[in-house]
Automatic annotation (TrEMBL):
A Pfam family: Pyr_redox_2
Domain FAD/NAD(P)-binding stretches: 38-254
PANTHER family for this protein: L-ORNITHINE N(5)-MONOOXYGENASE (PTHR38663:SF1), PTHR38663
UniProt protein name: FAD-dependent oxidoreductase
Length: 447
């Protein structure tokens, strides 16, 4: 079996190029959205963009997207740029475009804009056309998402709001935010993933000590010694940024060594036969597969630079020891106390401890989520919550249905195909019925 090992030069793809844009695609007008809609999509990241685009192809246009930023994919690319990330782990065949319809796919979009691509990026296009694994520049993916948002009229349906609660009733679902409420026939949750917080015993819980932050927070420019905690791709980007800034970087890994690969999980899980491994097996077997095939890893492109930096002493790697405590140190530093008795001190410590799927807990009533081992109870055919059949999930929350691929962009597209068909059927079935009313208070009908 051949292993795909791309050239490190890919990590330097340009960011911020000007791409041709379709006319229209204006953001939603000020104020609040309509009080009722056919569908509400919670979250306008790549998964939400995929769902809204698919519904457009199904002829469902009365859609409201609710997102904390108010713009499609804004938070996704904000996190990417915070890390200085220039390429995605996903190949060209993984994108939020609509499956099963004549639509512009990511590879089509890149080829249409050939003149904007670098020679290295063009080589990746040729590899993708030949059926080989290739790497997508963030800039291309960003422009493609903008194209989808414009061509499927997603931007003008996206409203800023922080969702506080979701209340299913017998024939509708009400979504309440910090600014407005919308009642719809169906709701699709595209919540993504949230950062994993540090264990409580590291400093007693709550906010981190001074000079300690998480990966999704802006990194201060001060200090010469940077400490990065975590074994995944996010940590690698932080380390690369620190080295490029001339900092002395210490890397703390609980495992005994780094894991380099080009996908978070075995690539077979992204194919239908791989996803079929989850069909017909019991819950415990699925959990076991998720544990074995979801490991923190780093793209192959990073290995030469990180190995060179370690050999030169610019990078010090602390392997195979767990952290027992994080505490303030002298002169505004932070100190990590290790299981073996050692200490690592830095002017700033950044924690990249991974992410956890958002499954609707805290938004839906707990009994409707049906949480078990961190996963919701979903209908595998429609991705609907088994106890709230008008509420659907796309993204990481579908992990126990689609397997590890659910947390990947292509997994979003697979889930979207099922959800969009089910939602469209539900909306058409309810067409012509009397106007539905918002759910009163917190009373929730069992559905």
């Amino acid at each position: 079996m051949l292993t795909f090992v791309p050239d490190p030069v890919l990590l330097g793809s340009p960011r911020g190029r000007e791409w041709p844009v379709l006319p229209g695609g204006r953001p939603a007008p000020g104020g609040n959205p309509p009080r009722t809609a056919d569908v509400v999509v919670v979250g306008a990241g790549p998964a939400g963009l995929a769902v809204a685009s698919a519904l457009w192809h199904h002829g469902i246009h009365d859609v409201v997207l609710v997102d904390r930023s108010g713009r499609p994919c804004h938070r996704f690319f904000g996190r990417v740029d915070l890390l200085g990330q220039r390429v995605l782990r996903s190949p060209y065949e993984h994108h939020p475009g609509v499956e099963g319809y004549r639509d512009c796919e990511l590879l089509d979009f890149a080829r249409l804009h050939w003149g904007l691509l670098t020679p290295v990026e063009r080589r990746e296009i040729r590899m993708a056309q030949a059926g080989h694994r290739s790497v997508v520049p963030v800039d291309v993916f960003d422009a493609y998402c903008g194209h989808l948002a414009s061509s499927h009229h997603v931007a003008e349906k996206t409203w800023r709001g922080v969702v506080r609660e979701i209340l299913p009733a017998a024939d509708a679902v009400t979504v309440r935010t910090d600014r407005f409420g919308v009642t719809a026939r169906c709701v699709v949750l595209c919540l993504g993933e949230e950062r994993r917080d540090a264990p409580e015993h590291w400093w007693g819980g709550g906010f981190p000590p001074p000079s300690v932050s998480y990966w999704d927070q802006k990194l201060p420019a001060y200090g010469e010694r940077l400490v990065v905690v975590g074994a995944g791709l996010t940590a690698a980007h932080l380390i690369g940024g620190g080295l490029a800034a001339g900092k002395q970087v210490h890397w703390v890994i609980r495992e005994t060594g780094e894991r380099y690969q080009c996908a978070d999980v075995n690539s077979t899980f992204f194919r239908p036969e791989g996803r079929a491994r989850f069909d017909g097996v019991d819950w415990d077997d699925r959990l076991d597969l998720l544990r074995r095939y979801r490991h923190a890893s780093i793209m192959f492109e990073f290995r030469p630079e990180l190995a060179r930096a370690e050999a030169e002493g610019r990078l010090v790697v602390h392997r195979g020891e767990a952290i027992t405590k994080v505490a303030p140190g002298a002169g505004g530093t932070a100190v990590l106390r290790m299981e073996g008795g050692g200490r690592v001190t830095g002017d700033h410590v950044v924690l990249a401890l991974g992410t956890t799927p958002s499954i609707g807990t805290g938004l839906l009533p707990g009994e409707l989520v049906g949480e078990r081992d961190g996963w919701p109870e979903l209908d595998g055919r429609t991705m609907a919550y088994a106890r709230a059949p008008r509420v659907f999930a796309v993204g990481a929350a579908a992990g126990m249905v689609l397997g590890p691929a659910a947390r990947n962009i292509d997994g979003h597209r697979v889930a979207t195909a099922r959800v969009a068909a089910a939602v469209a059927a539900s909306v058409r079935h309810g067409a012509g019925r009397a106007e539905f009313a918002p759910a009163p208070g917190r009373a929730v009908a069992r559905v």
